[in-house]
Amino acid sequence: MHIEPGYVSAAKVIAANAGAVGVIVWGCKEQISEFLKEPFTPLKTLLAAVFFSIFMQSFHMSVGASELHFVGAMAMYLTLGFTPVLLGFAIGLLFQALAFDPQDMYHLGVNSLSLMLPLIAVHYLSGRELFSKELTKRVSFAQILKLDAMYYAGVTGMVGFWLMIGDVATAFTAWAQFALSYLAIVACEPLVTFIAVKGLKAVEDNAIVRNLTVVPQLKLA
After folding, report:
1. Dist. CA 107–CA 117, nearest whole Å
2. Strand partners, 62
3. Which are the contacts of 113, defined by CB distance < 8 A and separation ≥ 6?
4. Separation of alpha carbons 86 and 24, rounded Å
5. Nearest to 89 by CA among 118, 110, 116
6. What is the rounded end-to-end Cα distance, in angstroms, of the chain?
7. CB count in 10 Å sphere of residue 83
């Protein structure tokens, strides 16, 4: 989901940075409201950033103008919650750039939006009902598969958007190759997510799981 440096003009990168800052400020505001109810929420954010960084380093492969990564988005979303993962993406990308790929600092806003906007869409279109007090929806493998498909459709769509408005001519087939390559991730991530949620659900009375995850709020099918 990275866009390599040079594909997007400086003016558009500045606009993306402004948009990313706006999303992060909104996310911080949302998290402050959560913090007043759940004091461990900032720690969940740090955990999301750490896990995201580990996932990113565990598998990455260049595909055309972007890179294929194991993101673990839904596994983190369903275990750590919405705002921790939203902000954890930005913190994790910043850490990745500082520690491993300094050239990624240039597109930090671009890459952050590519991950954050699809998560916002997934949360408000479908995911937040899984955390509602009424528990109108239950977590099943089919539900996880749906969330993953929605999320990665959004990620690949964002990559296509950046390439479309970029200054470097990129063939549609190059984007299609990247999008198709993500099918492998969509095929394996739901299984990882289901195992993580079910495993933590089995020990949800544990103090660490109760305080540092949102799993107790979920109900399995």
Report:
1. 15
2. 67
3. 16, 19, 20, 23, 158
4. 8
5. 116
6. 32
7. 25
* Encoded tokens for 55: 């996932």
Q: Tens-digit pLDDT profile for the chain (221 aa)?
A: 667 666 777 888 899 999 999 999 999 999 999 998 899 999 999 999 999 998 888 766 666 656 667 789 999 999 999 999 999 999 999 998 898 878 878 889 989 999 999 999 999 999 999 987 765 678 999 999 999 989 988 988 888 888 787 666 666 666 676 667 777 777 888 999 999 999 999 999 999 999 999 999 998 98
Class of residue 192 by CB neighbours under 10 A (exposed 0-12, middle 13-18, buried 19+): middle
Total-model pTM: 0.90
Eight-state DSSP code of residue 220: B
Q: How many CB atoms sit inside 10 A of residue 19's CB?
A: 16
Query: How far is it, in rounded angstroms, from Cα 53 to Cα 68?
Result: 14
CB of 80 closer than 8 Å to CB of 214: yes
Q: Scanning the structure block, which residue is given the tokens 């984007």?
A: 175
81: left (phi over 0), alpha (psi -120 to 50) or beta: left
